[in-house]
Structures are given as C-alpha cells and as structure tokens.
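Following the same procedure, sequence and fold were stored together, as reproduced here:

>
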Amino acid sequence: MDELSSEDLFRLNVLLAENLKAIRIDETAQALHALTSQGEASMPLHPNCRPDTYFRLLREHLSGHVLGSPGGYPVYLSRWTRHGQLASDDLGQLLLIGEPEAVTAVAYSPALTDELAGYAWWAMPTIENARLMLAREAVAKGRMGAVLTDFLLEHLPFLQQDHLAIMDTVTALLQAGTLSQAQREAIWRRGKQQNSYYVAFLERCPNELLGMDFVEACIDILGRPETQEVVSRTLDAIGRHFTATVGAAPEETPASLNRLARVSAALTDPIFARSSAIGSLMRRKIDPVTTSILADLELLKK
C-alpha cells in the first residue's frame, strides 16, 4: 500500500508542530517549503512510489492533519470560499495543505485580510491571485496593496496578445486605486500600441477621462478590435457612459447621444454566438453594427 516514506513522515510531523502560516509543494524539485513565524523552512521529499501518487498522498496527509479531511482538499470548501461562506478564522488553514486550488479560494474570499494575503502570495504568486486579492479593500489599502500593484505593473508587458488578461489586469489596478497618476498615464499610453488597454478605463473611470479621450478611445477600439471580449466590453461601456450622459443632459438630447445610450454587447451577441472569429475576420462580421456606432461617435468630435 502506498504511503509516505518514514523519513518524510517524521520530518513532516515535526514541521507541522510549528506555528505555520503557509505551505507550498515544489513537485519539480521534490521539496516542501513552509512559511513559519520564524521565517522559511524547507525539507526535501523522498517519493517511494510514482511521484504523482506520492504528492497526492502528501496533500492528503496535510489535509487530514489541518482540516480533518483525510481524503484531500474537500471540494465543498472551495465552493464555500468562492461564495464567501467560509469564516475568516478558517481561511488560514487552507494555506497549510499545499493545494493550489485552496490558495486561489483564499485569494477569492471576501474575508481575506492583508496578513492572509501576504501568506497566500508567498504560497502562490500568480497574476490571477494578484488580481483577485487586489480587489479586496483591506488588501488594496494594506501592505500588500503596493506589492501586488508593482507585480502586476511589472508583468503587464509580458501579457502581449492576451487581451482578456490585459483588460482584467488593468481593471484590477484601476479598481484598487493603488496607481499613481504617472502610472495611470503610462498604462493609458500603452493603448496607442494595443487598444485593449483602453477598455478598462472606459469601464472603470469614464468620467475621469476628458470627453474626447473617451470618444477617441472608443473609435480606436471599434476601428480595430482584436477579440470578441474587447468588442463586447467596449460596447457595454459605451452604453453605460452615454446612458448616464443623456440622463444628466438637457431635455433636447442629440439623436446620436440617444443612439449611443442604447449601445450594448447585445448588438453583437447574435454574431458572436455563430462565430468564434477574431481579428480582421471578426471585424468584417461586426461591421454592420460598428459602422453606425462609429458614425455617431465621429459626430461628437464636430
């Protein structure tokens, strides 16, 4: 019967007796790393069966010790955490079982604290987790706010043609309110080369843009969008913005503004439901929709 090697089991039990904050397992290096109140600790692992089986046994042992769940990370805990139903006192326990999904669940939790965010970041420093944690006010305003912001800014250029990741990352940064004015302007300027950078600004802070900046960005995006997500999110942003504009305008609103207020992703949904096209092919398919919207946007420039 497969079981942990006696050497690993002994060292692991000694380690688990300490005041642990988080555990991560490096399957490539066959090592376990722990964050303790005194700092970091590591122990080499000695698989005595197939590595995938051994790492499963290891996580089951950790889960049994920490959560009382010998079968490994319970799926219901993932559901609870992702729906905000797990108490903040229990969140830290999920960081002690060496399970990536559990770390993501912690990062997603509304009960996340700045301290726990630091432990979760040590356990799994990924772009997804940085975005998730920065969405929590306690984290954005805490010590980890600057850490996560710097990480996302540093990795933005490496997202390259991943337009969805670009939009989601810029959205997280703008929503957190952790960017300096200079950093915001630098991200905005990236839109000249890749207009998906503009989308989050249209969504999150349209009223902070100069009127022509908003209009010009919409024209740029709809003139050469790369993906369906870029189109859909831009159309929704246009509709929301001009609905608010019309609501605050005098009674005699120009017809172009009224038409723009009715813009939404629903206009292209039927097209996208029948096609997964991107790039130039997608642009040709949505041209009947975008042509009239672009015409109305151009009227605002006159």
Remarks:
- The mean pLDDT is 91.
- Residues 218-302 form one domain.
- Residues 228-248 form the longest helix (21 residues).
- Residues 114 and 142 are 6 Å apart (CA to CA).
